[in-house]
Amino acid sequence: MYDFKPGAAVAAEELYHDLLNAADALTAGEPDAVANMANVAALLWEFLPDLNWAGFYRVGPTKSGGADELVLGPFVGRPACIRIPFGTGVCGTAAQSGTTQLVADVHAFPGHIACDAASQSELVVPVVRKGAVIAVIDLDSPSPARFTAEDAVGIESLAALLADRI
Ligand code: SME
Question: Distance between CA 114 and CA 122 in Å, rounded?
């Protein structure tokens, strides 16, 4: 059994240190990308308060085999939109630009895709392998401005850890 639940009111640095250790322990030596993404989505949900969605979109071909887009991966939360074109919404912008998107108010973000009407703020971090975006980690919160620069740094470290494991 795994019991990675963090203590209450842990400082961000310690929280992400523990989260990364737990993610490392769960994914080390496991080659199945879906299993690793599923466990990390569950960890994000356990460790980070005030979320309504936590999970992955992977880069893959369109249904007709066309140019790459984002395809829904393992997550915790309400059912979400399955396919997101590069450059569309917060996730598609992160995938296209290869940069973290820290959005305090999703309603002010051009093209934001409302998968869950409860979402008010969002953090999306690209996962980059050998210079190419292979996935994004997406966190949504029902609270405005839920995510800080410390969250962005922490999730970027997680993305770097996972680059060769998903
Ligand atoms: N809001 C995202 C779509 C994904 S859901 O939040 C899970 C976006 O604008 O890209």
Answer: 11
| Domains of the chain and CATH, by start | 12-162 (3.30.450.40)
Tell me: the pLDDT tens digits for 30-66?
Answer: 999 999 999 999 999 999 999 999 999 999 999 998 8
CA of 21 to the centre of ligand 1 (A): 27
CA–CA distance, 78 with 17 (Å, rounded to integer): 28
pTM of the model: 0.94
- Ligand 1 pocket residue status of 115, Cβ below 6 Å: yes
Residue 109 CA, closest ligand 1 atom number: 9
Ligand 1 near 156 CB (within 6 A): no
Rounded distance between C-alpha atoms, residue 105 and residue 146, angstroms: 9
Name the residue with tokens 């210079």.
131
54 Cβ closer than 6 Å to some ligand 1 atom: no
C-alpha distances (whole Å) from 23 to each of 27, 32, 46, 50, 105 are: 6, 14, 12, 20, 28
Q: Which of 118, 116, 89 is nearest to 101 (CA)?
A: 89
CA 137 – ligand 1 centroid, Å: 11
Q: What pLDDT was estimated at residue 36?
A: 98
